[in-house]
Amino acid sequence: MPGSHPFLSGGFAPAPESSDHVLLEKQYDLFIDGKWVKASSRFETTNPATSEVLAEVGLAGKKEVNLAVKAARKAFEGPWGKMTGAERGKYLFRIARLIQERAREFAIIETMDGGKPIRESRDVDIPLVAAHFFYHAGWADKLDYAFPGKKPKPLGVVGQVIPWNFPLLMAAWKIAPALACGNTVVLKPAETTPLTALKLAELFQDAGLPPGVVNIITGAGETGQALVEHPDVNKVAFTGSTAVGKNIRRAVAGTDKKFTLELGGKAANIVFEDAAINEAVEGIVNGIFFNQGHVCCAGSRLFVQESIAPQVIRKLQKRMETLVVGDPLDKNTDIGAINSAEQLERIKVLVDAGQKEGACMWQTEGKLPRKGNWFKPTLFTECAQSHRIVQEEVFGPVLAIQTFRTPKEAIEKANNTPYGLSGGVWSDKGAKVFKMTGALRAGVVWANTFNKFDPTSPFGGYKESGIGREGGVHGLAAYLDL
Ligand code: TAP
């Protein structure tokens, strides 16, 4: 319960999931051509739950981006490009097994650098990272079977830029299919969460991956831009905001670079009166509060059928009061720290706008820790379609609730957004579920569940949520010349 949690009284109790045995260096360099290369300058990465500096990491400029792309080209034209699929698969299997062996260390670092609850990094992120490498290891020698009648060839050097909400998982989503298909990689992690990608580089060394096959260059937006614009990059794979995605699309226009863009979302989670209400309430909570709502496919717009709205909202508020907000390293924590002070500010701006525009805000009780970045689980009722909290991605633990009377009205309201990444439908009637899933303009629609991921299943958006798919056979195709 929130009131009994040591964190909520303000002080930092010793974390039950101790971070003592996790070895972090004071400084990290860039991982280029299988070696650690000093950058001309550095920046700090902090723990968003304590505001303490965890390490200094290299800031890659144009010179280092160039070195990394050259190393990737050399590896593509050298050992990696000449290797059979079966041999590439062996490396990927080895990487997957090493991730499993070091799962605890990766989970703790992910939680310290990004703020997500250890229960999620331990039980969701890291197992999915291993699963992603295992899945793609299996494809490496079967590409001819995946695309019968074609002669699949790798694209070459792939530039990959990823966000901070699932740092290691996004790295795995990018690196595993690229390598399975025979490409080489230059990856730029997000500025606020570089550490697990750098640890992954250590693991690549342990796995004996040939130099230059994967290069990890840390830095800011300019580093990502230099990578995207580099003339010797054959494909750009980007996950991040729609605003930056649009810039990237402009940057690759007129070149022969291939690209995939996985962008923002504003998912509708639709609950019908015939749904199992208690399960739906759990699904709503998971949909919006998983990873503090820093989820591209978060169920941030809830549509409840009018007849059950008061009951659902009452149950939801009661359930929200049980959510433990606090120390991300504590296994009892449900909601960890907001990833950065900038992101916290963005959330506050949109929540203020929600109140000013006339929606009705409700938040859980309980105090937040004094140090670090925190936001209480929040919901809004009395929302209108035009409100900013309904239209814009908050990317935080904030739910906007609306009601509907008919399935037609639910579909119209759900599709009334520039985004189209995901959605959810809760109903006891199979026919209704299929009607809804067919009508929703979203890349992924869950039925009577939410936020379920699997490497076999393609993921990606419609409209301003992006172009291309990651995962499954569709995801492989995005890394091949067919
Ligand atoms: P962004 O600000 O777009 O940043 C994403 C990455 O791009 C970061 O590594 C960032 O570097 C880099 N970047 C910034 N400006 C760039 C530029 N001009 N050229 C090239 N790279 C640039 O997004 P974010 O705030 O990290 O992540 C949140 C967003 O990602 C949300 O909109 C969320 O919905 C979306 N997201 C989508 C998905 C899928 S699968 N669709 C999954 C996760 C997240 P810095 O970190 O240094 O700024």
From TrEMBL:
Task: Tell whether Oxidoreductase is among the UniProt keywords.
Answer: yes
What is the protein name for this chain? Answer: Betaine-aldehyde dehydrogenase
Q: Say which family it is in.
A: Belongs to the aldehyde dehydrogenase family.
Residue ranges of every copy of the Aldehyde dehydrogenase domain listed in the record:
36-481
- A GO MF term: oxidoreductase activity, acting on the aldehyde or oxo group of donors, NAD or NADP as acceptor
Q: Which PROSITE patterns match?
A: ALDEHYDE_DEHYDR_GLU
Q: Which InterPro entries match?
A: Ald_DH/histidinol_DH, Ald_DH_C, Ald_DH_CS_GLU, Ald_DH_N, Aldehyde_DH_dom
Identify the Pfam families for this entry.
Answer: Aldedh
What residues sit in the active site?
262
Keyword Iron-sulfur attributed: no
**Protein keywords:** Oxidoreductase
Residues forming coiled coils: none
Q: Please name the source species.
A: Roseibacillus persicicus
